[in-house]
Design a protein that fits this description.
Strand order of the largest sheet: 1-2-4-3
Number of helices: 2
Number of strands: 4
Largest sheet: 4 strands, mixed
Strand content: 25-35%
Oligomer: single chain
Order of helices and strands: EEEHEH
Helix content: 10-25%
C-alpha cells in the first residue's frame, strides 16, 4: 500500500498551505512520477492523510500503479473558482 504524508507549499498569493500526498509503496525521490490532483472544496486535509485506502480505495489502486495523489488544502471559495483556475493551469 502507498503511504501518506503532508506536503507544505506556498500559493501564488504567498499564502502558506498544506496538502497531503499518497506516495507509491516503492516511492523513490530520484524517480519522476505522474501526479493526480484531487481538488475538493474541503479545508480539512489533515484527516485525509489517514483516510487513504480506507473509504475510497481507488486512490490506493492508482498508487499501486505508480501514481502520486496530491490532495491540496482548498481555502474557502476555491471550489467555486476551480473552472478559472484549471483553465489558467492549462494555459487557456
Amino acid at each position: 500500500m502507498g503511504r501518506g504524508e503532508y506536503f507544505n507549499y506556498v500559493s501564488r498569493e504567498g499564502q502558506k498551505l498544506r496538502g497531503v500526498l499518497l506516495l507509491p509503496a516503492n516511492y523513490r525521490k530520484d524517480v519522476t512520477y505522474p501526479v493526480i490532483v484531487d481538488i475538493y472544496g474541503d479545508a480539512n486535509v489533515a484527516g485525509n492523510l489517514y483516510e487513504f485506502g480506507l473509504g475510497d480505495g481507488f486512490w490506493q489502486l492508482f498508487a499501486s500503479r505508480g501514481y502520486v495523489i496530491f490532495k491540496p488544502y482548498a481555502p474557502n471559495g476555491w471550489a467555486r473558482r476551480w473552472p478559472t483556475w484549471s483553465r489558467r493551469c492549462a494555459g487557456r
